[in-house]
Design a protein that fits this description.
By secondary structure, the chain is α+β, with helices and mostly antiparallel strands. It has helices at 12-22, 28-40, 90-104, 119-127; strands at residues 2-6, 44-51, 54-64, 73-81, 110-111. Helix 1 crosses helix 2. The protein binds coenzyme A. Coenzyme A (COA) is lined by residues 22, 79-81, 86-92, 114, 118, 120-121, 123-124, 127.
């Protein structure tokens, strides 16, 4: 059974493992600090999904106040499911919870950006009803 809940500092080791799989390795201390920082940030929500009592995935939401609209919009800033637990609906459970959160906060759009190379993720988003609507330009600072 999949249970989605808010991330806690004690999830640090599992979250660090998941960030590594996403391609963003981080120390335990840095991961725990991010959990605390996100928990304190009103515009963000970091959740985990448990499968059989084990943390098997994470996802994070950020709510933006756009200058082009009166209504907030929500962005999925990260999502990853442990390799050993993929294709069991856990990613879908994570997105569903973030979508519900975005609706509760009055958002009229849920969006995300994803690297060109992540073909698996593109298939996943398409299946969940997301459409490709733009391009992402980035400039490292
Ligand atoms: C993308 C990701 C989060 C999906 O998680 P998941 O738990 O495996 O996804 P689900 O089991 O909920 O998949 C739901 C549906 O999406 C589609 N889907 C998911 N993964 C897919 C894949 N690799 N190829 C094709 N379709 C896929 C399927 O239709 C699937 O339903 P089905 O298994 O009944 O066919 C996971 O593959 C992952 O962590 N990838 C690596 C990290 C990553 O790329 N994150 C996104 C960064 S932008």
């Amino acid at each position: 059974v999949a249970v989605v809940r808010d991330a806690e500092t004690a999830d640090g080791p599992a979250l660090a493992r998941l960030l590594d799989q996403l391609g963003y390795p981080a120390s335990l201390a840095a991961t725990a600090a991010r959990v605390r920082r996100l928990a304190a940030a009103a515009a963000d929500r970091l959740v985990v999904v448990e499968h059989d009592g084990e943390v098997a995935g994470l996802a994070c939401l950020h709510v933006d106040l756009p200058v082009v609209s009166d209504v907030p919009v929500a962005r999925i800033t990260a999502i990853v499911v442990d390799r050993a637990h993929r294709r069991r609906g856990l990613g879908e459970a994570l997105v569903s919870e973030l979508e519900a959160e975005a609706r509760r906060r009055g958002c009229d759009l849920l969006y995300l950006t994803t690297a060109e190379r992540r073909a698996d993720a593109h298939a996943f988003y398409g299946r969940l009803g997301f459409e490709q609507t733009g391009r992402r330009f980035a400039k490292p600072l």
